[in-house]
Specification:
This protein has 344 residues and is an alpha/beta fold. Helices cover 40% and strands 21% of the residues. It is built from 11 helices and 14 strands. Strands 1, 2, 3, 4, 5, 6, 7, 12, 13 and 14 form a 10-stranded mixed sheet that branches. Helix 1 packs parallel to helix 2 and helix 8 runs antiparallel to helix 9. The two termini are 35 Å apart.
Length: 344
C-alpha cells in the first residue's frame, strides 16, 4: 500500500456510522487502505465494524492509550509510505486525499501536509482546531490561519494558497511514515492535546517542511471527545504546552519565556475565576504543578531535540506575541498580523 488512512476510535460508534462511509467513498483505491484503530472502546464499535464494514481492517488495542500512544501503536501496524491521522469526526470530500498524495509525490522536500479544515456544523467557516494551517508565537500559544484565539473567520478564499506552516492538526495530518518515526512519533506522555504541535516542532527544527494544501478540503466536527471548556482539556492543554516548550526551547530562551508564561498563566487563572470557571482555574494550577513534577523525565528528550536541530530560527514560528496583537492591537485575523512564514 502507498497510503494508510488511520482513524483512531474510542467509543465512537455513532461517529463511525456517520462518517466512515463518506471516508470510504472518497478514499479507497488500489493504493490506499482505511484502517480503524480502536483504543479499547467499551461500546460496540468493533462489533459494528465487523458487521457493517468487514472490508475495513481493525487494529484492536487492549486499552485507551490516548491520542498520542494510540496512534504510535496503530501506525506500527501499517507499512505504507504515507500515513494519514484522521479523526473519526471528519467528513471528507471528493479527491481530498489524492490531491494531498499527488502533491507529496511532486514535493519530496515536504514531510507533512494538512488540508483546509472547515467546520462540519458551519461549513462556511474555518474549524477551530487546525483551520488553514497552524502556527505558534514566541510564548508557545498556538493559532491558525483562519482562527486566532476565539475568532474564527469565514472561508472566503482568502487563504487558498499553499503555505509552509509550523504545525499541522492531528485532526487530519498526512505524513511520510518514515519521517514520523524518525522524529520519534507523538509523545505518549502527553496522552492528548498539543502532541501534534510538539511533533511538528521537532520536524521543523530538524529541517523538515510542513505545509497546508487548501486545494484539499475536509469538514471537522471538533470537540467530539472532550468539550472545548472541559477542565480535563484545560489541564492537558496547559500542562502539555509547558512540556512542549521545555522540550524544544534553547537554553537562552527557556528562563525568560517561562517567566513570562508564569505571569500570563496566572492571568488566565484569574480570568477563569472571574468567569466562575472554578474547575478550569484549578486545572491551570494542577497543570503547572504536574509540569514541575514531570519535567525531569523529559531531560533526555530535550537534550536530543537540541542536538538534532539544524536551525535556531524556524521561519514558520511567529516571533511576536499573539495575545498582544489580539488584545492590544486588535489584530484578530491572520491577514492583519503582517506575518510571512515563507520568509526564511
Amino acid at each position: 500500500m502507498k497510503t494508510s488512512v488511520v482513524i483512531l476510535n474510542w467509543n465512537g460508534r455513532k461517529l463511525l456510522e456517520q462518517f466512515l462511509p463518506i471516508v470510504l467513498e472518497h478514499t479507497l483505491d488500489y493504493e490506499t487502505e482505511v484502517v480503524v484503530a480502536d483504543n479499547g472502546s467499551s461500546d460496540d464499535s468493533i462489533n459494528f465494524l465487523k458487521a457493517n464494514f468487514p472490508q475495513v481492517p481493525v487494529v484492536a488495542l487492549d486499552k485507551n492509550y490516548g491520542f498520542a500512544e494510540g496512534y504510535n501503536r496503530a501506525l506500527q501496524q501499517v507499512n505504507s509510505e504515507y500515513v494519514v491521522l484522521l479523526n473519526s469526526d471528519v467528513e471528507t470530500t471528493e479527491n481530498w486525499l489524492s490531491t494531498i498524495i499527488s502533491y507529496l509525490e511532486m514535493h519530496p522536500e515536504v514531510s507533512a501536509v494538512q488540508p483546509k479544515i472547515l467546520a462540519q456544523k458551519n461549513k462556511t467557516h474555518f474549524e477551530y482546531a487546525g483551520a488553514c494551517g497552524g502556527f505558534i508565537d514566541k510564548f508557545g500559544y498556538p493559532f491558525c490561519r483562519g482562527r486566532i484565539l476565539e475568532n474564527v473567520e469565514p472561508d472566503q478564499g482568502q487563504y487558498n494558497y499553499v503555505i509552509p506552516i509550523f504545525w499541522a492538526t492531528g485532526a487530519c495530518l498526512c505524513i511520510r511514515r518514515k519521517d514520523y518515526f524518525e522524529a520519534g512519533g507523538l509523545d505518549a506522555r502527553f496522552f492528548a492535546h498539543m502532541e501534534e504541535i510538539d511533533l511538528c516542532w521537532r520536524l521543523n527544527a530538524r529541517g523538515k517542511r510542513i505545509e497546508c494544501l487548501p486545494q484539499s478540503v475536509v469538514y471537522h466536527v471538533g470537540a467530539a471527545s472532550l468539550a472545548k471548556e472541559n477542565p480535563r482539556k484545560t489541564y492537558l492543554n496547559f500542562r502539555n504546552n509547558l512540556l512542549m516548550l521545555y522540550k524544544n526551547l534553547p537554553l537562552g530562551k527557556l528562563l525568560p519565556i517561562f517567566t513570562i508564561r508564569l505571569v500570563l498563566d496566572l492571568l488566565a487563572y484569574v480570568h477563569l475565576l472571574v468567569r466562575g470557571k472554578f474547575s478550569n482555574a484549578n486545572a491551570v494550577v494542577k497543570a503547572h504543578r504536574d509540569f514541575i513534577s514531570m519535567k525531569s523525565s523529559f531531560k533526555h528528550n530535550r537534550k536530543e531535540n537540541l542536538e538534532k536541530k539544524v536551525s535556531n530560527n524556524i521561519s514558520t514560528k511567529f516571533n511576536g506575541s499573539i495575545l498582544w496583537n489580539y488584545y492590544m492591537k486588535g489584530r484578530k485575523t491572520f491577514g492583519t498580523l503582517g506575518f510571512k512564514p515563507s520568509d526564511a
